[in-house]
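$ fold --in a.seq
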Amino acid sequence: MSTTKHLILASQSPRRKQLLEWAEIPFDIIVHDTDESYPPSLPIDEVPAFIARAKALAVLDSLSAVDRDRPILAADTVVVVDEEIIGKPKDREDAISILTRLSGREHRVITGVYIQKADHILSFSDTTRVTFHPLTYEQISFYVDKYKPYDKAGAYAIQEWIGVVGIRSIDGDFYNVMGLPVSKVVQALETWQ
């Protein structure tokens, strides 16, 4: 697949980069620091799309007139358990605590996507339900020490060891859990060709 103009990916996530490469979408990465806070009254399901929009607009504001008609893609992923957003772990102990909380339970992974091309805007979220097998402390500490999941919401990456051995079931898009519902993104971009 190719777009008439290279997509701008407003994300430093290596997983999103990899997914776009797998989809054979040409893109450049442009990222600006973004305030990722959100109004406390915002429903949890709307938080990732709200943050994705802020990321995209920060990049849009920095573009030259020539680049402003290129499609911009931004995304944000959150993990939700007990109706609470679980962010990235602060340190080893926090990562172990998060994974202990997810052990043997279902949680939701919500990725918000914001795509803008000139005056065309598309914003949506995708939700995947993930259930872990009960995990032992030894399994959790092994994963945290070896894979150091400190840059990952929910303290894990589904495509790593813990996903292979620890996940009992997935209801929804696997790639959404990696950080981008890429098939929906491809469909959206194709409507703009």
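$ fold --in b.seq
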Amino acid sequence: MEGPKIKRLYYSTKEISSLLGISPQILRSWEKRFSFLRPTKSKSGRRQYKPADVEIVKEIQRLKNSGLEDDIISRTIMNNKYRTTSDREKIIERTERQVPVRDIIDELKEIIRILDSRDL
């Protein structure tokens, strides 16, 4: 008896590597080169790729195989007209999350200074 296919929440590096025929080293190098490819990490520090991450890896692989350079691949994926707005927002949000905490603190201090200078 065959039931409905169970959808995975996360995939390991090993699973992605064997599924797509990419070495784990290549996958890790792509994480460094492409800011929008950021898998979450488990409590033990292992990478966990969501299904959306798998789609991004597939797209990078396809574009790499067509001979495109990294900067063109980045722009293509970020501006991909076939990607939904919510996916693009998730990628941008993931990239923005990497803003140093110091920059956020400085920006908040500036906001407080502006608010304090207003007559309320």
